[in-house]
């Protein structure tokens, strides 16, 4: 009986695990230095969830040095738009407070006027990760000569020795396997990083429930929860949030408080505008012992959030706890 053929081993200088903004940006930096790089992403495409929506000034300085800052701003919120944050009783209720951040154009002018090193070279940028990731990927595919990006392949395990790393990859459907030999492996695979876990690196997490008790004290926390239950007859929030990503053409919602980036409520929910247009994300608090997988996308554990959601009459949700 013949021995099974060992799997073919691919070779590269750097294997980047994870094709989110961090992994793709690292790949751009490695391309800038002419380093052969393979980027693998366990998902079969870029993210379907909005996730981050702000790229700060320092990151934009890095993108400027890499020659892609202006390309990325083309897919972001227009540079003449100000960024507004509003607190209101509900999505169709009364405004409680509001403040605005200056636009990119206004910030550029301020940077020019105060050219003393105290401000970043580039203003921040508002763009949802669901838009940013494809933009970064497309720039790499169009311009990179040393970087390859492959979706649908995740890291299963790896071994390290004095010369480098041998990584074992598995396809998204679990039916295929590949082995990659690299001088370096970069774990850019998010909070649930398999790379981090195999290296034995811990993850600092904050338990919001314990934090609230610590800050308010147990008597005040219990009193607050009891009062909330008496008023709403709903389970108190336990620190988890349910996200609903949707589009709407409801002009009353769109125009009630003007163009708002974050619309926030004392009830705990937040509506985030992803494009200053028709795409939003609702963050709604979940009640204690609420089963997240069975939570309705048309309502939440918050009465005010439910009332707000009921006003969005035309929407296509992408949701998750």
Walkthrough of the structure:
Helices cover 29% and strands 29% of the residues. It is an alpha/beta fold and 321 residues long. A 7-stranded mixed β-sheet has the order 5-4-12-13-14-11-15, with no helix packed on it. A 6-stranded mixed β-sheet has the order 7-2-1-10-9-8. A hairpin with a 6-residue loop joins strand 4 (83-88) and strand 5 (95-101). The chain is globular and about 65 Å long.
Key attributes of the depicted protein:
globular; 29% helix; 321 residues; 7-stranded mixed sheet
Radius of gyration: 23 Å
User: What is the helix content?
Assistant: 25-40%
Strand content: 25-35%
Oligomer: single chain
Would you count the extended β strands for me?
Answer: 15
How large is the count of helical segments?
Answer: 10
User: How does the helix and strand content classify structurally?
Assistant: alpha/beta
What order do the strands of the largest sheet run in, or round the barrel if closed?
A: 5-4-12-13-14-11-15
Average the pLDDT over all residues and give the rounded result: 85
**Which residue ranges are poorly predicted, with pLDDT under 50 across at least 5 consecutive positions?**
1-5, 299-321
Gap between N and C termini, in Å? 52 Å
Q: State the shape.
A: globular
What is the makeup of the main sheet? Answer: 7 strands, mixed
What series of H and E elements makes up the topology? EHEEHHEEHEHEEEEHHHEHEEEHE
Task: Give the structure's gist in a few sentences.
This protein is 29% helix and 29% strand. With 321 residues, the protein is α/β, with parallel strands linked by helices. Helix 1 (21-32) packs parallel to helix 5.
